[in-house]
Design a protein that fits this description.
single chain, about 375 residues, alpha/beta, TIM Barrel, four-stranded mixed beta sheet, three-stranded parallel beta sheet, about 40% helix, binds ligand V47
Protein backbone atom coordinates (compact mmCIF):
# COMPACT_ATOMS: atom_id res chain seq x y z
CA UNK A 1 0.00 0.00 0.00
CA UNK A 2 2.88 2.36 0.76
CA UNK A 3 5.38 1.41 -1.92
CA UNK A 4 6.54 4.49 -3.81
CA UNK A 5 4.89 4.68 -7.21
CA UNK A 6 7.46 6.73 -9.10
CA UNK A 7 5.57 6.55 -12.40
CA UNK A 8 3.12 9.19 -11.34
CA UNK A 9 3.91 12.57 -12.89
CA UNK A 10 3.43 16.21 -12.00
CA UNK A 11 0.99 18.11 -14.28
CA UNK A 12 3.01 20.17 -16.75
CA UNK A 13 1.38 23.43 -15.76
CA UNK A 14 2.44 22.92 -12.13
CA UNK A 15 6.03 22.20 -13.16
CA UNK A 16 6.11 25.31 -15.34
CA UNK A 17 4.74 27.46 -12.52
CA UNK A 18 7.28 26.12 -10.03
CA UNK A 19 10.13 26.63 -12.49
CA UNK A 20 8.99 30.22 -12.99
CA UNK A 21 8.99 30.59 -9.19
CA UNK A 22 12.65 29.47 -9.11
CA UNK A 23 12.05 26.13 -7.38
CA UNK A 24 12.54 23.80 -10.35
CA UNK A 25 15.46 22.18 -8.49
CA UNK A 26 13.13 21.32 -5.58
CA UNK A 27 10.70 19.75 -8.06
CA UNK A 28 13.55 17.65 -9.44
CA UNK A 29 14.43 16.44 -5.95
CA UNK A 30 10.83 15.47 -5.24
CA UNK A 31 10.53 13.66 -8.57
CA UNK A 32 13.72 11.74 -7.76
CA UNK A 33 12.40 10.99 -4.23
CA UNK A 34 15.31 12.89 -2.69
CA UNK A 35 15.07 14.41 0.76
CA UNK A 36 14.31 18.16 1.03
CA UNK A 37 16.20 20.43 3.43
CA UNK A 38 15.28 23.52 5.43
CA UNK A 39 16.10 25.89 2.58
CA UNK A 40 13.93 23.89 0.14
CA UNK A 41 11.07 24.10 2.61
CA UNK A 42 11.49 27.86 3.03
CA UNK A 43 11.40 28.36 -0.72
CA UNK A 44 8.24 26.24 -1.00
CA UNK A 45 6.61 28.41 1.67
CA UNK A 46 7.57 31.50 -0.32
CA UNK A 47 6.84 30.30 -3.88
CA UNK A 48 4.00 32.42 -5.29
CA UNK A 49 2.27 29.46 -7.01
CA UNK A 50 0.60 27.91 -3.97
CA UNK A 51 -1.58 25.63 -6.10
CA UNK A 52 1.50 24.21 -7.82
CA UNK A 53 3.11 23.48 -4.44
CA UNK A 54 -0.13 21.65 -3.64
CA UNK A 55 0.15 19.66 -6.88
CA UNK A 56 3.70 18.65 -5.94
CA UNK A 57 2.50 17.44 -2.54
CA UNK A 58 -0.36 15.63 -4.21
CA UNK A 59 2.15 13.77 -6.36
CA UNK A 60 3.88 12.50 -3.21
CA UNK A 61 0.54 11.65 -1.59
CA UNK A 62 -0.53 9.65 -4.65
CA UNK A 63 2.81 7.89 -4.90
CA UNK A 64 2.36 6.68 -1.34
CA UNK A 65 -1.33 5.99 -1.18
CA UNK A 66 -2.85 6.43 -4.63
CA UNK A 67 -6.41 7.59 -4.03
CA UNK A 68 -6.79 5.73 -0.73
CA UNK A 69 -8.10 7.97 2.03
CA UNK A 70 -8.34 6.74 5.58
CA UNK A 71 -10.83 7.35 8.37
CA UNK A 72 -11.93 5.55 11.51
CA UNK A 73 -14.82 5.46 13.95
CA UNK A 74 -13.73 6.87 17.26
CA UNK A 75 -14.78 8.84 20.29
CA UNK A 76 -12.94 11.30 22.51
CA UNK A 77 -12.81 11.32 26.28
CA UNK A 78 -11.26 14.24 28.16
CA UNK A 79 -11.56 12.82 31.67
CA UNK A 80 -10.50 16.04 33.42
CA UNK A 81 -9.97 19.62 32.29
CA UNK A 82 -8.21 20.63 35.51
CA UNK A 83 -4.71 21.59 34.40
CA UNK A 84 -1.75 23.16 36.15
CA UNK A 85 -0.24 24.35 32.88
CA UNK A 86 -1.10 27.81 31.60
CA UNK A 87 -0.82 27.42 27.81
CA UNK A 88 -1.85 30.71 26.19
CA UNK A 89 -3.80 29.04 23.37
CA UNK A 90 -5.90 26.76 25.53
CA UNK A 91 -9.60 27.41 26.06
CA UNK A 92 -10.29 23.96 27.51
CA UNK A 93 -8.43 23.85 30.81
CA UNK A 94 -9.34 25.21 34.24
CA UNK A 95 -6.57 25.84 36.75
CA UNK A 96 -8.07 24.29 39.88
CA UNK A 97 -10.58 21.71 40.99
CA UNK A 98 -13.62 23.70 42.12
CA UNK A 99 -13.18 26.51 39.56
CA UNK A 100 -16.35 27.24 37.62
CA UNK A 101 -16.50 24.84 34.64
CA UNK A 102 -13.70 22.64 36.04
CA UNK A 103 -14.59 18.96 35.93
CA UNK A 104 -13.13 15.54 36.63
CA UNK A 105 -15.11 12.52 35.51
CA UNK A 106 -15.67 9.63 37.85
CA UNK A 107 -14.61 6.29 36.38
CA UNK A 108 -18.29 5.46 36.06
CA UNK A 109 -18.92 8.64 34.04
CA UNK A 110 -15.98 7.94 31.72
CA UNK A 111 -16.95 4.33 31.21
CA UNK A 112 -20.54 5.50 30.68
CA UNK A 113 -19.36 7.37 27.54
CA UNK A 114 -18.17 4.10 26.09
CA UNK A 115 -21.13 2.10 27.39
CA UNK A 116 -23.52 4.48 25.64
CA UNK A 117 -21.98 3.33 22.34
CA UNK A 118 -22.18 -0.38 23.07
CA UNK A 119 -24.36 -1.00 20.02
CA UNK A 120 -22.34 1.31 17.79
CA UNK A 121 -19.32 0.28 15.76
CA UNK A 122 -16.37 2.28 17.08
CA UNK A 123 -12.80 1.03 17.07
CA UNK A 124 -10.92 3.68 19.04
CA UNK A 125 -11.20 5.87 22.10
CA UNK A 126 -8.91 8.93 22.16
CA UNK A 127 -8.13 10.12 25.70
CA UNK A 128 -6.46 13.46 26.51
CA UNK A 129 -6.51 15.06 29.95
CA UNK A 130 -5.38 18.16 31.79
CA UNK A 131 -2.40 18.03 34.17
CA UNK A 132 -4.54 17.57 37.28
CA UNK A 133 -2.59 17.93 40.55
CA UNK A 134 -5.35 16.32 42.62
CA UNK A 135 -5.44 12.86 41.11
CA UNK A 136 -3.36 9.80 42.04
CA UNK A 137 -1.65 7.88 39.22
CA UNK A 138 -4.07 5.02 39.93
CA UNK A 139 -6.90 7.19 38.53
CA UNK A 140 -5.45 6.73 35.05
CA UNK A 141 -4.59 3.04 35.32
CA UNK A 142 -8.04 2.34 36.86
CA UNK A 143 -9.64 4.31 34.03
CA UNK A 144 -7.81 2.26 31.42
CA UNK A 145 -8.68 -1.03 33.11
CA UNK A 146 -12.33 -0.05 33.45
CA UNK A 147 -12.54 0.98 29.79
CA UNK A 148 -10.94 -2.26 28.65
CA UNK A 149 -13.24 -4.28 30.87
CA UNK A 150 -16.25 -2.57 29.30
CA UNK A 151 -14.98 -2.85 25.71
CA UNK A 152 -11.91 -5.11 25.36
CA UNK A 153 -12.05 -4.65 21.58
CA UNK A 154 -11.58 -0.86 21.68
CA UNK A 155 -8.10 0.47 20.87
CA UNK A 156 -7.12 3.04 23.49
CA UNK A 157 -5.05 5.88 22.04
CA UNK A 158 -4.32 8.16 24.94
CA UNK A 159 -2.11 10.42 27.04
CA UNK A 160 0.03 13.02 25.31
CA UNK A 161 3.76 13.32 25.95
CA UNK A 162 2.90 16.33 28.12
CA UNK A 163 0.85 14.11 30.43
CA UNK A 164 3.51 11.36 30.52
CA UNK A 165 6.20 13.91 31.42
CA UNK A 166 3.97 15.39 34.14
CA UNK A 167 3.20 11.98 35.69
CA UNK A 168 6.91 11.07 35.64
CA UNK A 169 7.76 14.21 37.64
CA UNK A 170 4.79 14.08 39.96
CA UNK A 171 4.84 10.38 40.80
CA UNK A 172 8.63 9.91 40.72
CA UNK A 173 8.78 7.53 37.76
CA UNK A 174 10.80 7.35 34.55
CA UNK A 175 9.05 7.86 31.21
CA UNK A 176 9.45 4.13 30.55
CA UNK A 177 7.85 3.27 33.89
CA UNK A 178 4.87 5.57 33.25
CA UNK A 179 4.30 4.30 29.72
CA UNK A 180 4.84 0.69 30.82
CA UNK A 181 2.29 1.01 33.64
CA UNK A 182 -0.28 2.63 31.34
CA UNK A 183 0.34 -0.03 28.73
CA UNK A 184 -0.11 -2.82 31.28
CA UNK A 185 -3.44 -1.21 32.22
CA UNK A 186 -4.66 -1.13 28.62
CA UNK A 187 -3.04 1.73 26.70
CA UNK A 188 -2.41 0.73 23.07
CA UNK A 189 -0.91 3.83 21.43
CA UNK A 190 -0.32 7.53 22.04
CA UNK A 191 -1.73 10.60 20.30
CA UNK A 192 0.49 13.41 19.06
CA UNK A 193 -0.75 16.31 21.16
CA UNK A 194 1.30 18.79 23.14
CA UNK A 195 4.06 19.24 20.57
CA UNK A 196 2.85 22.76 19.67
CA UNK A 197 5.97 24.38 18.14
CA UNK A 198 9.31 23.04 19.30
CA UNK A 199 11.29 26.30 18.99
CA UNK A 200 12.20 27.62 22.46
CA UNK A 201 11.37 31.21 21.48
CA UNK A 202 7.75 30.26 20.82
CA UNK A 203 7.42 27.73 23.64
CA UNK A 204 8.60 30.26 26.21
CA UNK A 205 5.80 32.60 25.14
CA UNK A 206 2.87 30.22 24.60
CA UNK A 207 3.46 27.27 26.93
CA UNK A 208 6.43 27.92 29.20
CA UNK A 209 5.33 25.62 32.03
CA UNK A 210 5.02 22.28 30.32
CA UNK A 211 7.46 19.79 28.84
CA UNK A 212 10.02 21.30 26.46
CA UNK A 213 10.78 20.07 22.95
CA UNK A 214 13.52 17.64 23.99
CA UNK A 215 11.27 16.16 26.68
CA UNK A 216 8.37 15.76 24.23
CA UNK A 217 10.64 13.98 21.76
CA UNK A 218 12.19 11.82 24.49
CA UNK A 219 8.75 10.60 25.62
CA UNK A 220 7.94 9.55 22.06
CA UNK A 221 11.39 7.97 21.63
CA UNK A 222 10.74 5.95 24.79
CA UNK A 223 7.27 4.88 23.62
CA UNK A 224 8.71 3.79 20.26
CA UNK A 225 11.48 1.85 22.00
CA UNK A 226 8.80 0.06 24.01
CA UNK A 227 7.14 -0.92 20.74
CA UNK A 228 4.27 1.56 20.95
CA UNK A 229 3.16 3.54 17.90
CA UNK A 230 2.47 7.24 18.33
CA UNK A 231 1.33 10.26 16.33
CA UNK A 232 2.82 13.74 16.12
CA UNK A 233 1.28 17.19 15.78
CA UNK A 234 2.21 20.82 15.20
CA UNK A 235 0.06 23.73 16.35
CA UNK A 236 0.47 26.46 13.73
CA UNK A 237 -0.84 29.88 12.82
CA UNK A 238 0.07 31.75 16.03
CA UNK A 239 3.32 33.65 16.55
CA UNK A 240 5.69 31.17 14.92
CA UNK A 241 7.64 31.84 11.72
CA UNK A 242 7.57 29.45 8.78
CA UNK A 243 11.20 28.66 9.60
CA UNK A 244 10.07 27.52 13.05
CA UNK A 245 7.38 25.33 11.45
CA UNK A 246 10.07 23.74 9.30
CA UNK A 247 12.41 23.30 12.26
CA UNK A 248 9.55 21.49 14.02
CA UNK A 249 9.03 19.16 11.06
CA UNK A 250 12.76 18.45 10.78
CA UNK A 251 13.03 17.49 14.45
CA UNK A 252 10.16 15.05 13.97
CA UNK A 253 11.79 13.69 10.83
CA UNK A 254 15.07 13.13 12.70
CA UNK A 255 13.35 11.14 15.44
CA UNK A 256 11.44 9.15 12.85
CA UNK A 257 14.75 8.25 11.14
CA UNK A 258 15.87 6.88 14.49
CA UNK A 259 12.78 4.94 15.57
CA UNK A 260 10.17 4.70 12.78
CA UNK A 261 7.45 4.88 15.42
CA UNK A 262 5.32 7.79 14.16
CA UNK A 263 2.26 6.84 12.17
CA UNK A 264 0.81 10.16 11.15
CA UNK A 265 1.56 13.87 11.32
CA UNK A 266 -1.31 16.21 12.20
CA UNK A 267 -0.88 19.96 11.69
CA UNK A 268 -3.42 21.65 14.00
CA UNK A 269 -4.69 25.06 13.00
CA UNK A 270 -4.80 27.45 15.95
CA UNK A 271 -8.30 28.67 16.94
CA UNK A 272 -8.39 32.10 18.48
CA UNK A 273 -11.49 32.31 20.68
CA UNK A 274 -11.78 32.18 24.48
CA UNK A 275 -8.03 32.07 25.08
CA UNK A 276 -5.24 34.52 25.79
CA UNK A 277 -4.16 34.70 22.14
CA UNK A 278 -7.52 35.96 20.95
CA UNK A 279 -5.90 39.05 19.42
CA UNK A 280 -4.16 36.94 16.77
CA UNK A 281 -5.55 36.36 13.31
CA UNK A 282 -6.14 32.74 12.35
CA UNK A 283 -4.29 31.20 9.41
CA UNK A 284 -5.98 31.79 6.05
CA UNK A 285 -7.28 28.92 3.93
CA UNK A 286 -4.31 29.03 1.57
CA UNK A 287 -1.86 29.16 4.48
CA UNK A 288 -3.43 25.99 5.85
CA UNK A 289 -3.30 24.28 2.45
CA UNK A 290 0.31 25.28 1.89
CA UNK A 291 1.42 24.21 5.37
CA UNK A 292 -0.04 20.76 4.76
CA UNK A 293 1.58 20.56 1.32
CA UNK A 294 5.00 21.52 2.66
CA UNK A 295 4.60 19.01 5.50
CA UNK A 296 3.87 16.22 3.01
CA UNK A 297 6.98 17.19 1.06
CA UNK A 298 9.33 17.53 4.05
CA UNK A 299 8.23 14.48 6.04
CA UNK A 300 9.36 11.80 3.64
CA UNK A 301 9.48 9.18 6.41
CA UNK A 302 6.06 9.59 8.03
CA UNK A 303 3.45 7.59 6.20
CA UNK A 304 0.28 9.55 6.84
CA UNK A 305 -0.80 13.18 6.95
CA UNK A 306 -4.03 13.73 8.81
CA UNK A 307 -6.53 16.52 8.10
CA UNK A 308 -8.29 16.71 11.45
CA UNK A 309 -11.65 18.08 10.34
CA UNK A 310 -12.98 19.35 13.72
CA UNK A 311 -10.39 22.12 13.78
CA UNK A 312 -9.93 22.75 10.05
CA UNK A 313 -13.56 22.82 9.05
CA UNK A 314 -15.04 20.01 7.02
CA UNK A 315 -14.62 21.82 3.68
CA UNK A 316 -10.94 22.67 4.17
CA UNK A 317 -10.24 19.14 5.40
CA UNK A 318 -11.86 17.77 2.26
CA UNK A 319 -9.84 20.11 0.01
CA UNK A 320 -6.65 18.97 1.78
CA UNK A 321 -7.15 15.52 0.27
CA UNK A 322 -5.66 17.09 -2.90
CA UNK A 323 -2.88 18.93 -0.98
CA UNK A 324 -1.06 16.00 0.61
CA UNK A 325 -3.47 14.68 3.23
CA UNK A 326 -4.63 11.06 3.10
CA UNK A 327 -6.54 10.76 6.38
CA UNK A 328 -9.55 12.56 7.88
CA UNK A 329 -9.28 11.12 11.43
CA UNK A 330 -12.70 9.82 12.34
CA UNK A 331 -16.24 10.29 13.46
CA UNK A 332 -14.91 12.08 16.63
CA UNK A 333 -17.70 12.24 19.16
CA UNK A 334 -17.68 14.97 21.78
CA UNK A 335 -14.58 16.93 20.89
CA UNK A 336 -13.98 19.67 23.49
CA UNK A 337 -10.54 21.20 22.98
CA UNK A 338 -11.33 23.06 19.74
CA UNK A 339 -14.98 23.61 20.32
CA UNK A 340 -14.18 25.52 23.52
CA UNK A 341 -11.74 27.59 21.44
CA UNK A 342 -14.35 28.57 18.90
CA UNK A 343 -14.48 25.74 16.35
CA UNK A 344 -17.89 25.72 14.70
CA UNK A 345 -17.58 22.27 13.13
CA UNK A 346 -20.10 19.57 14.12
CA UNK A 347 -19.48 17.43 17.22
CA UNK A 348 -19.48 14.28 15.12
CA UNK A 349 -19.66 13.12 11.52
CA UNK A 350 -21.31 9.85 10.64
CA UNK A 351 -19.47 7.15 8.77
CA UNK A 352 -21.71 7.88 5.76
CA UNK A 353 -20.76 11.59 5.92
CA UNK A 354 -17.05 10.72 5.87
CA UNK A 355 -17.45 8.25 3.01
CA UNK A 356 -19.45 10.80 0.99
CA UNK A 357 -16.87 13.58 1.62
CA UNK A 358 -14.01 11.34 0.50
CA UNK A 359 -15.84 10.10 -2.60
CA UNK A 360 -16.85 13.66 -3.48
CA UNK A 361 -13.13 14.56 -3.44
CA UNK A 362 -12.52 11.82 -6.03
CA UNK A 363 -10.81 9.54 -3.53
CA UNK A 364 -11.32 5.99 -2.29
CA UNK A 365 -12.48 5.71 1.34
CA UNK A 366 -10.81 3.11 3.55
CA UNK A 367 -12.15 2.50 7.02
CA UNK A 368 -9.09 1.80 9.14
CA UNK A 369 -8.30 0.91 12.72
CA UNK A 370 -5.88 3.07 14.72
CA UNK A 371 -2.85 1.23 13.34
CA UNK A 372 -4.01 1.66 9.73
CA UNK A 373 -5.24 -1.88 9.16
CA UNK A 374 -8.43 -2.10 7.14
CA UNK A 375 -11.23 -2.29 9.72
CA UNK A 376 -14.33 -2.69 7.56
CA UNK A 377 -15.37 -2.84 3.94
CA UNK A 378 -16.62 0.44 2.52
O1 LIG B 1 -1.79 19.71 21.97
C1 LIG B 1 -5.29 23.28 22.03
C2 LIG B 1 -4.20 21.73 20.37
C3 LIG B 1 -3.92 19.55 20.86
C4 LIG B 1 -6.05 24.82 20.70
O2 LIG B 1 -2.88 12.06 17.64
C5 LIG B 1 -5.46 23.81 19.94
O3 LIG B 1 -4.50 11.35 16.39
C6 LIG B 1 -5.99 24.93 18.04
O4 LIG B 1 -3.24 16.56 19.74
N1 LIG B 1 -6.54 25.95 18.69
C7 LIG B 1 -4.63 18.27 21.36
N2 LIG B 1 -5.44 23.87 18.62
C8 LIG B 1 -5.32 17.52 20.24
C9 LIG B 1 -4.42 16.57 19.51
C10 LIG B 1 -4.95 15.60 18.50
C11 LIG B 1 -6.14 15.84 17.85
C12 LIG B 1 -6.60 14.89 16.93
C13 LIG B 1 -5.92 13.72 16.68
C14 LIG B 1 -4.73 13.50 17.35
C15 LIG B 1 -3.99 12.22 17.13
C16 LIG B 1 -4.22 14.44 18.27
O5 LIG B 1 -4.86 20.52 20.54
C17 LIG B 1 -3.04 20.28 21.81
C18 LIG B 1 -2.90 21.62 21.15
O6 LIG B 1 -1.86 21.59 20.22
N3 LIG B 1 -4.99 22.90 20.80
N4 LIG B 1 -5.94 24.48 21.98
C19 LIG B 1 -6.60 25.94 20.03
N5 LIG B 1 -7.11 26.98 20.67
Amino acid sequence: MNALDLDRTLPRAARRALEADGVGDVVDKVIAAERLDLDDGLRLFEAPSAAAVGALANLVRERRHGDLTFFNRNLHINATNVCEATCMFCAFSRLKTGDPAAYTMSLEQAVGRVRALRDTFVTEVHIVNGLNPDLPFAYYTDLLRALKEERPDLHVKGFTAVEIHYYAGKYGMTYAEVIGALRDAGLDSMPGGGAEIFADRVRRRICHDKVDADGWLEVHRTAHQLGMRTNCTMLFGMIETVEERLDHMLRLRALQDETGGFQTFIPLKFHNEHNRLSGLYEATGVEVLRTYAVARLMLDNIDHLKAYWPMLGVQVAQALLAWGADDLDGTVREERIYHMAGATTPQALSRDDLVALIRDAGRLPVERDTLYHVAAEV
